[in-house]
Structures are given as C-alpha cells and as structure tokens.
Amino acid sequence: MGEGPDNEDSPGAGRRPPPGGTRTVGVPPVARPPEEPPDGTPLRGLSAAGGLAALRGLLARPLASYYLLLFSAGLLLLIGLTMVFSATSVEDFAKRGDATESLTKQAIFAVIGIVAFWVCQRLPVRTFQALAWPALGGAVVLLLLLNLLLVLGSLAGVDQVGPFSVYINWLYLGPIQLQPSELAKFALVLWGADVVARKGAKLGWWRELATPLFPVLGLLFVLVGYNDLGTMLCLLALVVGLLWAAGVRLRVFAVLGAVGLLGVGLLVAVASLGAGSSNAGDEDGDNFRLARLTNFIDPPPLETCKLHDCYQMLQARYAIEHGGWFGTGLGKSSLKWGSLPAAENDFIFVVIAEELGVVGCGVVVALFAVLAYTGLRIARRVTGRFRQLAAASATAWLIGQAMINIGGVIGLLPLTGVPLPFISDGGSALVVTLAAVGMLASFARAEPDAARALHARPPARWVRLVWAPLPPLPGRRRPGAPPAPRARAPRGRHEDDQAAPRAVRANRARRGSAEERRR
C-alpha cells in the first residue's frame, strides 16, 4: 500500500542497497544552477567571467586585428580634428576672420592621408619590399638638401636656392611644403625590415649587423638629429623595436644603448654651435638643448625661470590643473588663447587635459594602448619575416612618439618638440602616419585566419575593387619551387666563434669552410 522505496512500481525495486549507504549506478549527477542573491541581482563573478569570455570570443575572430586597427586609428583621427579646431578657432577668427581655416587645412591633409591609407592597404608585400631602397634614398636626399640649405642660410644668409627654401624642419618646393624627417621614419621601417629579413639567421654575427645597417642608421641619425633631436629619438625607438622583433642579442642592445647615449650627448653639445630647430638658444648663445635637459633634471625656482626657460612647462601645468578630472568643457580652454605656445602642435595634449580633463586624457591613452596591442598582435600572427618586422617597427615608432610627446608635456620626460600622432596639427606627419596604418591594415588582412575567412566568404566584386583585394592564402608556393632552406642561427655560447674556447675554435677552423674561418 505504501509508496516507499520498496514499491514495485518505483525504479530499482527489489534491489538491496550496497553496504555502507545508498548508491545510484549509471545516473549522472544533476548540476544545480547557482543560487542568486535574495534581491535577484546576478552574481558579480559570473558577470565578469561572462564579459571576459565575450571579449576573448571577439578577439578570436579572424578579422579582429583589422577592425581594432580601424577603430583605434579612426577615433584618434576624429579626436585630432576636433582638438585642432578647438585649439585654433579663436585665434584664427581674431587674426583672419575665419574660425575654420586651420581645421580646413588639417581636414585636407586628413583626406590625403586616408587616400594614402587606402593605397597602402591594397599593396602586396612585395611592393613594400621593392619600395624600401628607393624610399630610403629619397629620404636621405631630402634630408641632405634640407641641412645644406640650413647651413647656407646660417653661414651665407642664403634663404632660397632655385625653387627650394627651408624653414626650421620644413622644406619648401614652391607651394609644396613637406617635412623630410617624417618621410625618413616610414622609409626606415621599410628598409630596415627588408634588410633584417634578408639576413635571416646571419644576424647572430656582428659583421652582418654592421653592414649595411649601422652605417645607414648613423647617417640618418646625424642628418635628422642635427636639426631635430626629438625626431631622432623616435627613429631610435623604431630601431629598437625592429631589432627586438628580430631577436637580436641583449649584448647588442647594450652596445647600441651606449653608442646612442654618446650620440645624444654630442648632439646636445653641438647645439651651442647653432644646431637645432629651436630659436630658444639664439639669445646670448645659450644651448637650448642643454637648458631643457638641465631644467628637467634640476628644475630652477619658478621666480627665476617662469618667464623664460620653464615658461612653456609652467603654462602646461596650469592648464592641466585647470582641467581637473572632467575638464572645463570642449572649446572652453583659456590658456590656449596666446598663453600656451604651440597649443595646436606639440602641446595639444595639454589642451585635451584642460578641456576634457583626466577622463579625456585617459581615453586618448587607452586608444594608443589599443593601437599598441593591435600592432604587436599583427606582428605576432602574420606570416612572413618582412611583415613581422615592419609591423613591430611601425608600432614602436607610433607608440614611442606618443610616449615621448605625452611624457614631455606632463613633465615625465624632457621636452623634445615632437607632435602627437593623429592629433597634432601638421600635414606631413598625418599623411605619413596614416600611410603606416594602411600598411598595418594590409598585414592584418594577410593574417592566416583572416585570409582564409576572406576567401571562404569573399565580399562582392565591387567591394574588392573599391576597398581592398583579397589577400593571398597562406602556405602557397609557386608550382615547382623548392622550399626555402632554413639556416641555423648561432644560439649558444659555444656556437659563437667569439665566445667558444680556443680548442673548440681550432677544431672548427680545421673542419670548417673558408667562409666560416673569415667570420
């Protein structure tokens, strides 16, 4: 009559429980849903874990690198156009009667830069490699012409030679104005990646590093650093990123660091002879580079320098303090009206701090962090040694320049006078920067997963014609072409002739080839 466990209609009727307790065989345990708090709100740990899982899912998509690059660069460009208008509108209206004059010029250069982005996005990798040597040669010629005209102007008072004229770092060819040092950055990315990629495993030898990499780098550093020390530091960051991605030994970085410090010291010293792009040292023959470095290491009292040496930094501090956490509001900065020099160029981050506060500065820094992550992600995931090295060096250039600018204007680094990428006013810098982003976009589409996804579901024909063609599928070789031999790099201490014991070197020399003995 009862409905207990011994009922015949119940499952397992007539079975005796095993000794030691009741046990169910073959029935999986039922997972219970997590209990929610009494107020009905979801658990915080699960929501955070779900958000992290969703983020990982988004980053695992094939074209995540491409869209992250477009997102970060596009927002930085939009912020730059907005802040250029905010920093220049009042002064343009007061002097010229047109509040949008500087914005119009910057927008024209932005359109040219977007065209350069579109062109570089469509180029295959072999075109970038073919342009490496011509781009470097053109940049060196322009830098030589710029420095020659500057020397003629300082010694003989010659302001113009034919259609060419110069002003500080800008070279004028009639109505065309450009900055050769900006072109040198992109040229060094292409040329350095091409040279290092061709050397391959030979980079373990000092002789291979010394030719032709170091002589060309020394020439570029002298041509750029003589007139613009800040841009030379950007080139140095580019080279460090290139060699780090190539896997060069730490001892090489130590030697390069010592040589770099010596070169910076010499460039600081030659500023007493008239070198440099600033006129700060013209009065009484002062060395403005040494003054900036001294003011950073040992700041003088404000009563003695607030009108001369540290005036610019003092106004920047006032602007940052005035902005606070949330800023005074877009367009409501007051120190940009003549009190803050170069508000639309080198110190535009200070205008962001005053108008948008710490929150606005944090958004800009976060976008640069996303750009840094995306560039390194592309360098890690893309195939081909040239693509990897070019992506890493271009990322080191853009992020290094942003760090030098932001660190200088907020007082964490000495002032150098380099623009903030994407945001500062300037045509040559913006066009070259967007061209480098276009190259990174081309590499992002060439990632193995991205290329397979684009070939699996190709866009419409008109989209491929207007925007970008399909990237090549990874792992394909020409029919009949043998696989490239893999050279073996010297990885250990005993594989390097300079570090091996004498007996090992003698045995190696006897059984090695003539080429190995010369090395």
Automatic annotation (TrEMBL):
The question of whether Membrane is a record keyword is answered with yes
Query: Residue ranges under compositional bias (Pro residues)?
Result: 473-485
Catalytic activity of the protein: [GlcNAc-(1->4)-Mur2Ac(oyl-L-Ala-gamma-D-Glu-L-Lys-D-Ala-D-Ala)](n)-di-trans,octa-cis-undecaprenyl diphosphate + beta-D-GlcNAc-(1->4)-Mur2Ac(oyl-L-Ala-gamma-D-Glu-L-Lys-D-Ala-D-Ala)-di-trans,octa-cis-undecaprenyl diphosphate = [GlcNAc-(1->4)-Mur2Ac(oyl-L-Ala-gamma-D-Glu-L-Lys-D-Ala-D-Ala)](n+1)-di-trans,octa-cis-undecaprenyl diphosphate + di-trans,octa-cis-undecaprenyl diphosphate + H(+)
Molecular function per GO: lipid-linked peptidoglycan transporter activity; peptidoglycan glycosyltransferase activity
Q: Which InterPro entries does this entry report, sorted A to Z?
A: FtsW/RodA
* One GO BP annotation of this record: peptidoglycan biosynthetic process
Record has rRNA-binding as a keyword: no
Top enzyme class, one word, equals transferase
Could you name the domain of life of the organism this protein comes from? Answer: Bacteria
* Pfam families referenced in this protein's UniProt entry, alphabetically: FTSW_RODA_SPOVE
Q: Where in the cell is it found?
A: Membrane
Q: Where is the composition biased (Low complexity)?
A: 11-29
E.C. numbers: 2.4.99.28
Topology relative to the lipid bilayer, per the entry, is: Multi-pass membrane protein
Q: Where is this region: Disordered?
A: 1-43, 473-519
Q: What is its main location?
A: membrane
What function does the entry list? Answer: Peptidoglycan polymerase that is essential for cell division.
Q: Which family does it belong to?
A: Belongs to the SEDS family. FtsW subfamily.
Mind telling me what this protein is named?
Probable peptidoglycan glycosyltransferase FtsW
* UniProt organism field: Salinispora tropica (strain ATCC BAA-916 / DSM 44818 / JCM 13857 / NBRC 105044 / CNB-440)
